[in-house]
Amino acid sequence: MTTPSTPATAASTSGFITVQSLTKKFGPNTALDDVSLSLGKGETMAIIGPSAAGKSVLLKCIVGLHGADSGKIMLGGDDVSQVSSPARKHWAERIGMLFQQNALFDSMKVWENICFRQIERGTMTRKEAKDHAVDLLGHVGLSEDSAFLSPGDLSGGMQKRVGIARAISTDPEILLLDNPTAGLDPVLSNHIELMISKIATQRGTTVITITNDMQIARTRYANLVMMHAGKVYWSGSTNDIDDAHNEHLTQMLNGSSQGPITMRMGKRGDHMVA
User: Is 139 in the same domain as 68?
Assistant: First the structure.
C-alpha cells in the first residue's frame, strides 16, 4: 500500500489489464507520469481524482487513441502501448468505451449511433441493428421512440445513456466508462450502476470506470485507483480504503478543501482535463 504523501509504486505485471510506468505528454504538459495499475480478468475498478488528474487520458491510452511516450500497456498479455501496435486492431474489437462527452454522431439517428460498429462492419442488417439498439435503450431507461431521434434532440443525460448503450452494444470483453452517471439523477445513476455490475458479473466483463461519486466508487467497484496531477497516489481493494491512511485518498473521499490536492488556476489544454 502507498504512503500518505507519495505516488503509488509500480503495479504487478500479471493482470489482464496492466499499465506499467506509463508516461504521456502533450507538448510541455505531462498528462500521465509513471502511471501503473493492474486489473484481473472480470474484475472492476473505479478511478477517482480531481479535474486534470489524467484519468480520461489514461482510458484513451488503454483504448488506443493515444500511444505511450514510455512505459507499457498490456491487454491479455499483448503489448498495445503504441497506436500502431499489431495487436491494437484485435483489441479494438473487444473494447467498449463511453467517452466523457459521449461522442455521438449528430448526423445519425440514435439507433444508428448505438450500432455504428455493426452497421459499418456488416455484422448486422439495418433491421437487426435497429432492433438491437431498441432493446439496449430499454436497459438504459430510454423509450423505443428515442431510437429515431437525433442526438441533438436529447438532453445531456439522455445522450449519456445512449453513449452507454453504444459502449455495451458489442458485448465487449473490456468496458471503459468515463463518468457514466455524470448528469443523471440519483435513481437513474443507481440503475445504470446496477446494470454495469450485472454486466460485469454475468458476462465476466472487465470494467474500469472514472467516477466523481465516492459512494459509487466505494460500493460498486472491487478496486480503486486515486490519481492526482498525472500520478497514481493510491491503488488497492475498496475494502482497504478506510485503513489506507493516505492523505490524497482521504481528501478526495471526504471532498475536503484541506489537503495535498489543490486547485490549479489558469487554462490547460483539452488533453489535460479530467
Answer: no
